[in-house]
Write a structure and sequence with these properties.
7-stranded antiparallel β-sheet, 304 residues, 10-stranded mixed β-sheet, Jelly Rolls
Length: 304
Amino acid sequence: MAIAWAPANAASNTEPLRYGDFEHWVTRNIKESRVIGGAHKQVYAVGPDRTIDGDEPYVPSGGTPWASSNVMAKVMGITKTSNAVYPDSRPTGGKCARLTTKLEHCKAIGIINIDVLVAGTLFLGRMFEPITSTSDPYAKMEMGIPFTKRPKALHFDYKVEVPDGNTRTYSSGFGQKKTIAGSDKAEAFILLQRRWEDASGNLYAKRVATARERYSKTTTGWINGHDLKLIYGNAQNVMDLIPKEKSYYARNSKGKMVPVHEVGWDSPDASPTHMIVMFSAGSGEPYMGTPGLTLWVDNVALAY
């Protein structure tokens, strides 16, 4: 628990998430495989300031609780990167996180010619590299961190930019790229869960508290000091339980990545064991979204 938090700000009764001011970033310099052009790419991670050269799998350090959709993949022996979460500057000074939806293109004559749609996403947990396929994306993400408190809200600054038009793109890299009616939305949510493990290593959870918002319109500048208020107990009208087939994953006591099956709503006075926080430039299915949709986030904290 100690590594996930910065000291509390008693004056405003908020507790910042560590590195949630997005002032510090890891910069990874990776050369993609020659067969797809051999470009030198930068891939960012939220964490202590440092630079990593080379295509080594990323392992978080310095106590950062943050992970993102930024990854290095090795498919069919080919190294490819994806970066849709960036450090950005605020007009008033300092840095923030910029999350955007984009198409990652990969072309190799006679081998690969694909587009993969990526929605820039920040979450509490870890992404395991290298990514070796586009199948079952949740199995590559450990979602959530240990947490036992009962906050009132997720507190943060944000800005949204939604491109003109009213379409989404579906492109998983294999099969036909599709254009679908209806614009995507940016999203922020926080879930508190009480998890347990059975004798076979399966993980289960009941939902203790829920808060979610989706953003469909461009904001007029930054919205500062926003509170996303938690509802304890049944919050079906805000966000339903996670379906079994879309379960997030976590490591069990044996270190194996397994799905966390949400099996019901917990009592409003229950104590959680884990917290999930996610910000995303999309709110639909994996590999589907509106290219250009962008969400800026800063100063993430918990309000009590």
